[in-house]
Amino acid sequence: MIDNPRSPRVRAVAKLAKREARSRTGLFLLEGPQAVAEALGFRHELLVELYATPQALDRYTDIAQAAVDAGVDVELVTEQVLDHMADTVTPQGIVAVAHQFPTSVREIFARGPRLVAVLEEVRDPGNAGTIIRAADAAGADAVVLTGRSVDLYNPKVVRSTTGSLFHLPVANGADLADVLDRSRQAGLQVIAADVKGGDLLEARNAGDLAKPTAWLFGNEARGLTDEQYALADRALAVPIYGRAESMNLATAASVCLYESAFALRS
């Protein structure tokens, strides 16, 4: 059992909370039973090692067995050691280290996608992770994060996806203009989600959302710049019928993605 929180191995895992360490090693941190279970279920070959307290292994015997079956090194650690490894304040007894696995933009559009979410300058990890989760739930074919967005492998992004990171292709660090050019070449219309846009309901009623679409979502605080806005074919806004001043980006993105998913499947 690893019981020294200052050991080199523990410190190496803890450093993966920082982008510099992730970039240098090509690894990232998974926290909690849900994320680890999804990784084992869908991309077990990515896992390098798994760390758990004895209590967590007793509770999540299915995860422990799946890790052993996949040939993943399982190490017992004390709660103090796990606290040092994890990025969360109250970890759930299990963390794992995995290889990063971004999909290239070229590969995404070579697959003939019909629904893609493009994130430009989305800086909040929770928003980015929740949009990936919503895209997965809506049956989107891929998510693309531009180079000005938060790092895909930020621990808070990974946690917010609740495992959806392993379910669909996600590109990281892409160039916005290149992504939108490839979208059009693949036959997708580019729609910006922006408060200055037209009414989403009217577009749905007109049948405009039944076409393959790349949705473009901008920065949480200021939305899209004029230059970014001009790169889209059109813009639509989620109408607010109540008294709310605005909508959270991830919530608005979920509405947009599901509107397209409904239309594409009708």
Q: Major β-sheet, in short?
A: 6 strands, parallel
CATH superfamily of the largest domain: SPOUT methyltransferase, trefoil knot domain
The name of the CATH architecture of the largest domain is: 3-Layer(aba) Sandwich
Question: What is the number of domains?
Answer: 2
Helical content class: 40-55%
Order of helices and strands: HHEHEHHEHEHEHEHEHEHEHEH
Major sheet strand order: 7-6-5-9-8-10
Q: Judging from the principal axes of the Cα atoms, what is the shape? A: elongated
Q: According to CATH, what is the topology of the largest domain?
A: Alpha/beta knot
Structural class: alpha/beta
Total helical segments: 13
CATH class of the largest domain: Alpha Beta
* Distance between the amino and carboxyl termini: 55 Å
Strand tally? 10
Radius of gyration: 20 Å
Strand content is 15-25%
What are the low-pLDDT stretches, counting only 5+ consecutive residues below 50? Answer: none
**What is the overall pLDDT average?**
96
Write a concise keyword list for the protein shown above.
4-stranded mixed beta sheet; 42% helix; Alpha/beta knot; 2 domains; single chain; 266 residues; alpha/beta; 6-stranded parallel beta sheet; elongated
